[in-house]
Every structure is written in C-alpha cells, then in structure tokens.
UniProtKB/TrEMBL annotation:
It comes from Candidatus Kerfeldbacteria bacterium RIFCSPHIGHO2_12_FULL_48_17. A motif (Histidine triad motif) lies at residues 98-102. One of its GO terms (molecular function) is catalytic activity. The lineage of its organism: Bacteria, Candidatus Kerfeldiibacteriota. Residues 5-113 form the HIT domain. It holds the Pfam family HIT. PROSITE patterns: HIT_1, HIT_2. This is Histidine triad nucleotide-binding protein.
Length: 113
C-alpha cells in the first residue's frame, strides 16, 4: 500500500464521504468539489494510472465504467448528464497516483473537448 492516499481511504485509515462501496470499488465525494456534484470512483486495486494498466485489468476497467454510470444515476445527475474525467500522469493533471474517475455534474461542466 505504501503511502497511497486512496489505498489508505480504501483501507479505512483515512476518512471519506462514501457514496458507494463494494468489494472492488469505492465512490467518494471529492474533498475540493469543482461542481455541485463531484464524486470519484476508485478501484480498490492499486494501479497508479491508466497508463499502467495491463490486459488482466480489462474486465475491471469495463466494470469501472459501468459503476461510473450506476453511481451517476444514483447521484441524480444522469438525466441531465455529466462529465467523466480521467487524469493521467503529469500532463493529464493527475495529482493522486491511484487510478480514479471523476464524475462532475449538477451544472453545465466546461471541458476542453
Ligand atoms: P486527480 O487530479 O485526478 O489526481 O484528482 C485527485 C482528486 O482527489 C482531486 O480532485 C482532489 O480534490 C481529490 N482529493 C484529494 N484528497 C482527497 C481526499 N482525502 N478525499 C477526497 N478527495 C480527495
Ligand atoms: Zn493506491
């Protein structure tokens, strides 16, 4: 586990505002929300970034995107829509080196693309 922030949250060693949890994923409110709804969906497996996945992660990655859709539905943002952001390494603006997907919604979300 080392010093990974999200591994510590997954292990319950640091507090978080959980909105979903099962054996493989945790969804928590972002501590510095950039939108009215800002939730992170985090696989419990420690993978540093999308750039570090391997073939054995394919099923988990598919389930991750399905979980994002289900959590967004539960949060009530699916009807109007939301933006999904996955920052990768330095140029992608990734701060926490444990793969996670941002769900941003509750208003029109600006993005580059
Ligand atoms: P990223 O730039 O994709 O690595 O985003 C990391 C996100 O984690 C940022 O939006 C932070 O606000 C958020 N964050 C950092 N620490 C915590 C924490 N303890 N609980 C919840 N979210 C956090
Ligand atoms: Zn980790």
């Amino acid at each position: 586990m080392g010093d990974c922030l999200f591994c510590k949250i997954v292990a319950g060693q640091l507090p978080s505002e959980k909105v979903f949890e099962d054996d493989d994923f945790l969804a928590l409110k972002d501590i510095h929300p950039k939108a009215p709804t800002h939730v992170l969906v985090v696989p419990k497996k420690h993978i540093p970034s999308l750039a570090d996945v391997s073939a054995e992660d394919e099923v988990m990655l598919g389930r991750l995107m399905h979980r994002v859709a289900l959590v967004a539905r539960d949060l009530g943002v699916a009807d109007k829509g939301y933006k999904v952001v996955l920052n990768v390494r330095e140029h992608g603006g990734q701060i926490v080196p444990h793969i996670h997907v941002h769900i941003l919604g509750g208003e029109r979300i600006k993005g580059l693309v």
